[in-house]
Design goal:
With about 150 residues, this protein is an alpha/beta fold. It is about 40% helix and about 25% strand. The chain contains 5 helices and 5 strands, in the order E-E-H-E-H-E-H-E-H-H.
Amino acid sequence: MEQHRFLFELERIAKPAYDCVVLTGRLAYHTQLAAEQKLAAVAAAVEHPLVIVDTSGLQFLDSTGLALLVRFFKRVVSAGRAMAIVVRENAMIEKILLIAKLDRLFPIAADEQQVLALAPLSSPGPIEQAVLLEAWQQQRAEGGDGSG
């Protein structure tokens, strides 16, 4: 049995305006224990009012992985921060997120620039998740280039 099949990696990168959490590998049943610990540690270490989760490096995402993302989202929001997901060219992960209707919780964008261009980010201070989500949904409704 190959060990690399079950790898999940996470890296937090503190950018000037947001924290970026880069996920790679498999966010699934077989990686849930390590993933849960890593995600909880990152949620506690976030410094900025905005967290952008980059899922473009995920090779696999199952229902357990979706539940882990939702729990991470709840931790981020309960700490008074906002969260968005970036999928880049990873159409498979984007499709799974949309099928699970996670676009009702947070923006699912092609890249960080789409998230950073949203109106609520232009003002200093905390960012409310509902305001971020509403701005993203309005951008999509107006034919913006947001994913989804």
